[in-house]
Sequence to fold (351 residues):
Amino acid sequence: MEAETFNIPTGDEKAPFCCIVIGMAGSGKSTFISQLEKQAGRRSEEKLPYITNLDPAVTNVSYTPFIDIRNTIKIKDVMKNYNLGPNGAILTSLNLFSAQFDQVLNKMESKRNNTEMYIVDTPGQIEVFSWSASGTIISQMLSASFPSALVYVIDLARCKNPNTFMSNMLFCCSILYKLKLPMIVVFNKTDVADPEQVKVWLKDYAVFAEDLKKNETYLASLSRSLSLSLDDFYNDLNAVYLSSMTGDGFDSFFGAVEKAREEYYNVFLPDLEKRKQSNVAEKKRVEEEMAKFHNQVAQDKKGAELDKMYPNMANPNAGSQSLYQKKAQTKSKMEEVKEKFDEMKIEDENN
Ligand SMILES: Nc1nc2c(ncn2[C@@H]2O[C@H](COP(=O)(O)OP(=O)(O)OP(=O)(O)O)[C@@H](O)[C@H]2O)c(=O)[nH]1
Ligand SMILES: [Mg+2]
Fold:
């Protein structure tokens, strides 16, 4: 199902905010969600977050999911029935679940007045969500229905080395390009890793370049130039530093949500509306071309009969061309139109 199917929220400032939590395996997504559940509960006891778990392979979660993929799909059955390994089974489970995602949206919608936040936990293998058609569809459906953001959780302990930090940030950037949603970057585990170095690297390219020198590898010059090109991305980064274990720094997350909400309404939503309109206009244009083409074919059929009867006579309506020649041109027009349709399909799959 496409994002266009749903009613796009327009300026409903009180709408619950939807956080789609993604991150590398073990970065602390589930721990972050249970801490967020606790902290949000402290802020508003009656309006607890409405949590959805999309990880079919997790055995225990320390939060209370209202919707849980595991209640609908048993990963062991998927592995057995489809003869798949664990990663293929997680992906297939998510694909199967995304086919029913409108039901999830309806359930979420029905809780609109009972919560301030929707939270979605995703599978440990980040690429299963961020690079799959189902992950794209789910995030499109969510963001077309509620003000939403991706919450990208990064393990701070994996950011000590400048090269690893660089690859983490590149990954983050690639997901932003892939899913095209407002993003909050959560540098997690501040209780075991000092965030100061990362803060400085994000602000000051010269320090990062200097620290890279200390770590000189054959990749250092590549990291230097990549970092320089990521400078703009860093400037706009909505980043927070916290510990999901202790709850330290969580207040800053709620501030980041407000910032992401503004970005959603001021930047993302108008862009979505524009994309939606240009899709509609493009579809209309292709439909008109198809209608013209069908007319042409109908006329050509008549003309072809005349051509057969008078093979040496040019069609007076087609200048000096015979109707057969014209038909050959119409065929290439058909290919052109078909290509347009194919292009649109590809866009739907990848966007
Ligand atoms: N010290 C510390 N440990 C943390 C923190 N957050 C998570 N952890 C630990 O990191 C490990 C992974 O946490 P999870 O919450 O399961 O991470 P996840 O990203 O959901 O993992 P997958 O879903 O398997 O990818 C667990 O041992 C957590 O206890 C934190 O803020 N501080
Ligand atoms: Mg998890």
Notes: The longest strand covers residues 148-155.
